[in-house]
Amino acid sequence: METATPQPKDASRTRERILGAARREFARAGFARATVRAIATAAQVSPNLITRYFGGKDGLFVAATEVHLALDRMFDGPRHSLGRRMAHGIVDRWTGMEGEDPLLVLLRAAGERGEAAEALATFLDRESLEPLRRQLLGYGMTEEEALARARAIDAFILGISARLRVLRDDLGDSAALEHWIAGTIQRLVDAP
Fold this sequence. Notes:
Residues 35-54 bind DNA. The protein is mostly helical and 192 residues long. The protein contains ten helices and no strands.
């Protein structure tokens, strides 16, 4: 009788499976209602592994909401098409990541947890507002004008993200949505 050779455990793959399940559960239920048991069940692991890898629910939340945006590709190009490039990147993220988007998890948790709200504000300043301000400066705007327009665009994007993603509205026709977002951003860039 031949015995099966045990498969080596892959801690990295298990960790990623847990993070994927956590992102989906935090996005679906929010931080307060998400449970370690539900996340462990979805990831097909013991709840003890969540404690082992992440130190518990808080540590798992921090790991699951680590977000980095590659906005340089979106910003690179002429001023007259900045709105179109940004809208494409935004809608592509919304339709491509769904419940696993760490930014969506962070947006939903910001109303429940002060540290999530602070993390979101810091993230938006570093990953969105500042690179956009630099791009607008590159188009020849003054510091004051670039910062004011970057803030307006940032507030617009955060507002539609909250309305369409956090409040769980249907995105509807993504092409029409992208066109509307592009036009609005471009007006904020070019307004006198």
